[in-house]
Amino acid sequence: MTNTLDRDYGFGSLLKFALPSIIMMIFMSLYTVVDGFFVARFVGADALSAVNIAYPMISVELAVGVMLATGGSAVVARRMGEGDEKAAREGFALLLAAGLIAGVLFTVLGLTLAEPMSRLLGASPALLGYCTDYLRILMAFAPAYILQLMFQSFFVVAGRPGLGLWLTVAAGLANMVLDYVFIVPLGLGIAGAALATAAGYLIPAAAGAAFFALRRHGLRFIRPRWDARMLLYSCLNGSSEMVTNLASAVITFLFNMLMLRYLGEDGVAAITIVLYAQFLLTALYMGFSMGVAPIISFNYGAENTHRLKSVFRSCMIFVAVSSVAVFIAAMAFSGGIVGVFSPPGTAVFDIAVAGFCMFAPMILFAGLNIFASALFTALSDGRTSALLAFLRTFGFILLGLLVLPIAFGVDGVWLAVPFAELLAGAVSVGCILWGRKRYHYA
């Protein structure tokens, strides 16, 4: 099977190959941010709170989709590297079938239990209607959401990362335009925000289905063959990415509770803005890691140690240089970032800018930690990847939230994420040093 993964990559060509995935992840992260902007500016604070309350349930969908996408694409790419074309196609088809079934189950839950789920997530009587409407609409489109996540990873495996990029750009633009149309002129409120986001799901999902159905060569649809071992292995291999998204939901809830205690509703709004900024900034590394992972998996499966080492060196250079550059840029433009959501001169703006300056050093370590987890996923070492993801996104942050506020008050809440990224960075370095002899990437 001929594939663009089977070639030598220098630093420039590797970055060019990963660039579509980077831009793709940034646009995907804009879905939530754009919704937050339009809801905050044109619907109201209660509606924005409802979006945040609904976030954990949407994160569960995201966790399932990313788990199948990252874990499954690594397995399929490795089979391609081993030259087993039929097994790669069968595994691809089975993974998509599993994603579709999971999406249908989420849809059923959303249509029947949106209100009880909203109550369980903490919606007050004033927020219940907003939250129920938002959840019901988004979960109705869960199959498209999960499939579009999976197709984006498999476009890269199929050697067509540019297609994933353009589809994601189209979806992002549609989401932004429809957010305005549905919320401002049509006055659909929070339901309009949900419908705009759902439209963004449908574009890459439909186009991806058409692409793999009509393709005659390379990775494409064929009749799936049941392989419980492969499906389970793919889920375990992608478990780190699943853990990341599930932990994010829990940690966001804890942040909100602590800020409510220290600074009230303004504090909750401020931490929400900063977490939006974190989501956008880390999308760079999530996209880069997603883009290079199939190359790592392919060369690992092909036992091409020379190429594997070259790719690893280029990845480490990118992570080191970009981490410093992004940190400097984030500090320089902190006021502008916060001002997108809250105008200068307000209490929320002042709290968020001060908090962002304490929060921003996390960027110096986040890139390394995200790449390290993705590296071991690409090498089909799901256990190490899951350990790194769990410690970074949950274990160390939970420790920080339990300890630092006692010593530093509200400043400790802002410092919890940099604290967690620093500790996770030490573990990541240790795992990379341990893995170089086992996997021969350095």
UniProtKB/TrEMBL annotation:
<dbReference type="InterPro" id="IPR045070">
    <property type="entry name" value="MATE_MepA-like"/>
</dbReference>
<keyword id="KW-0812">Transmembrane</keyword>
<keyword id="KW-0813">Transport</keyword>
<keyword id="KW-0046">Antibiotic resistance</keyword>
<keyword id="KW-0472">Membrane</keyword>
<feature type="transmembrane region" description="Helical">
    <location>
        <begin position="92"/>
        <end position="114"/>
    </location>
</feature>
<feature type="transmembrane region" description="Helical">
    <location>
        <begin position="12"/>
        <end position="33"/>
    </location>
</feature>
<dbReference type="GO" id="GO:0046677">
    <property type="term" value="P:response to antibiotic"/>
</dbReference>
<dbReference type="GO" id="GO:0015297">
    <property type="term" value="F:antiporter activity"/>
</dbReference>
<dbReference type="GO" id="GO:0042910">
    <property type="term" value="F:xenobiotic transmembrane transporter activity"/>
</dbReference>
<feature type="transmembrane region" description="Helical">
    <location>
        <begin position="267"/>
        <end position="296"/>
    </location>
</feature>
<protein>
    <recommendedName>
        <fullName>Multidrug export protein MepA</fullName>
    </recommendedName>
</protein>
<feature type="transmembrane region" description="Helical">
    <location>
        <begin position="317"/>
        <end position="341"/>
    </location>
</feature>
<feature type="transmembrane region" description="Helical">
    <location>
        <begin position="134"/>
        <end position="151"/>
    </location>
</feature>
<feature type="transmembrane region" description="Helical">
    <location>
        <begin position="189"/>
        <end position="214"/>
    </location>
</feature>
<feature type="transmembrane region" description="Helical">
    <location>
        <begin position="53"/>
        <end position="71"/>
    </location>
</feature>
<keyword id="KW-1003">Cell membrane</keyword>
<dbReference type="GO" id="GO:0005886">
    <property type="term" value="C:plasma membrane"/>
</dbReference>
<feature type="transmembrane region" description="Helical">
    <location>
        <begin position="163"/>
        <end position="183"/>
    </location>
</feature>
<keyword id="KW-1133">Transmembrane helix</keyword>
<feature type="transmembrane region" description="Helical">
    <location>
        <begin position="386"/>
        <end position="408"/>
    </location>
</feature>
<dbReference type="Pfam" id="PF01554">
    <property type="entry name" value="MatE"/>
</dbReference>
<dbReference type="InterPro" id="IPR051327">
    <property type="entry name" value="MATE_MepA_subfamily"/>
</dbReference>
<feature type="transmembrane region" description="Helical">
    <location>
        <begin position="353"/>
        <end position="379"/>
    </location>
</feature>
<feature type="transmembrane region" description="Helical">
    <location>
        <begin position="414"/>
        <end position="435"/>
    </location>
</feature>
<comment type="similarity">
    <text>Belongs to the multi antimicrobial extrusion (MATE) (TC 2.A.66.1) family. MepA subfamily.</text>
</comment>
<dbReference type="InterPro" id="IPR002528">
    <property type="entry name" value="MATE_fam"/>
</dbReference>
<feature type="transmembrane region" description="Helical">
    <location>
        <begin position="235"/>
        <end position="255"/>
    </location>
</feature>
<dbReference type="InterPro" id="IPR048279">
    <property type="entry name" value="MdtK-like"/>
</dbReference>
